């Protein structure tokens, strides 16, 4: 292989590497680990990643059978928390709004998302009609639709 092909292949690999890179716990700053341990003392095994694009550490773990994803800045400040929740734990205004605005859609999965202290819910739904459509719905706790993404 000549030098130009080798260089092209190396550059292509560098630009296709994922933004998230698994890292060992030993490379995670102490304030980051301490914050996760403080907030989630009963978390299961933690998988650590570093997001080069956002310059944040990411902790993924299971707690009480539910999946969590926590993003933190190097000083331990929490940037984002995503947590699976059971459909029964969605706030009543959210489930009422979905029933009203998306009749014929079955709720499949729910996540509670907190970004810089602001809480919202993501609910994945699927239509029960012959033209099966998936919808990601984002709601505020009071049942206001914030956004939606349709996947036919």
What would you say this structure looks like, in words?
With 152 residues, the chain is of the alpha+beta class. It has three helices and nine strands; from the N terminus they run H-E-H-E-E-E-E-H-E-E-E-E. A nine-stranded antiparallel beta sheet has the order 1-2-3-4-5-6-7-8-9, with helices on one face. A hairpin with a 2-residue loop joins strand 6 and strand 7.
Radius of gyration: 20 Å
Strand arrangement across the biggest beta sheet: 1-2-3-4-5-6-7-8-9
Residue ranges: pLDDT <50 for 5 or more in a row?
1-18
Tell me about the largest β-sheet: 9 strands, antiparallel
Average pLDDT figure: 86
SSE-based structural type: alpha+beta
Helix content class: 10-25%
Number of strands: 9
Question: Count of helices?
Answer: 3
Could you spell the SSE succession in H and E letters?
Answer: HEHEEEEHEEEE
Silhouette: elongated
Tell me the span between the first and last alpha carbons.
44 Å
Strand content: 35-45%
């Amino acid at each position: 292989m000549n030098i130009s092909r080798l260089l092209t292949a190396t550059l292509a690999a560098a630009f296709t590497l994922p933004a998230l890179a698994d890292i060992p716990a030993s490379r995670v700053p102490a304030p980051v680990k301490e914050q996760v341990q403080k907030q989630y003392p009963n978390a299961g095994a933690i998988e650590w990643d570093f997001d080069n694009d956002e310059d944040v550490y990411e902790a993924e773990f299971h707690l009480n059978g539910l999946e969590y994803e926590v993003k933190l800045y190097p000083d331990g400040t929490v940037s984002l928390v995503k947590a699976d929740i059971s459909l029964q734990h969605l706030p009543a205004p959210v489930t009422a709004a979905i029933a009203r605005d998306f009749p014929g859609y079955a709720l499949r999965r729910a996540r509670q998302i907190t970004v810089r202290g602001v809480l919202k819910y993501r609910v994945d739904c699927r239509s029960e009609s012959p033209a099966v459509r998936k919808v990601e719905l984002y709601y505020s706790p009071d049942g206001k639709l914030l956004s939606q993404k349709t996947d036919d």
